[in-house]
Amino acid sequence: MNKKVYKPEFTDILMNFFIGRNSIPFIAEWLEEKYFCNNDYLHFSKKISDDNSFSVEGIEQISDPGSDIVKTRETGKQFNEGIKQLSDEAPAHCKLFQNCPNPFSKKTIINYQCSCNSFISLKIYDIKWNEISTLIYEKTVPGTYQIEFDGSGLKSGVYFCRLTVISGADEFTETKRMLLII
Q1: Which of 86, 92, 111 minimizes the C-alpha distance to 122?
Q2: By the 8 A CB rule, do 90 and 140 touch?
Q3: Are 170 and 2 in contact (CB under 8 A)?
Q4: How far apart are CA 25 and CA 20, in angstroms?
């Protein structure tokens, strides 16, 4: 895998950016310097925010397929509310457990484990793969975690829970089917 090196040219603060793969950031903190990407200037500020929250203004593709540069202007929704760390021991591998109860009515518990320092995304999709909710979108440390999903307001049906874990060049994705019965 080829790695790109972004070299600073001079200081110029504009707005916040992150670079990621499949809309999941793996670099989210920058010095106040100007960076190159295929002769186009990219402007990075110090970091997105301490609470890992942001709002997306627009997306510009960079040369690697599946990679994004996302512009942000201000803090948006914080996605890490309600996460409980069940264990801080590093498991042997990443895993998404089946939600419990399943089928569920209104609320269900989703457990997952992460084996290394990484960036994770936990999203809920409907049967047509439309994104319904982003439960988690943040950096995490090894451990086993739990979060509650509130499906009230949704129609009865099949939904999917997808965990994506990115650590350096490695990516892990696992999906579980959930059945909501109102």
Answers
A1: 111
A2: no
A3: no
A4: 4
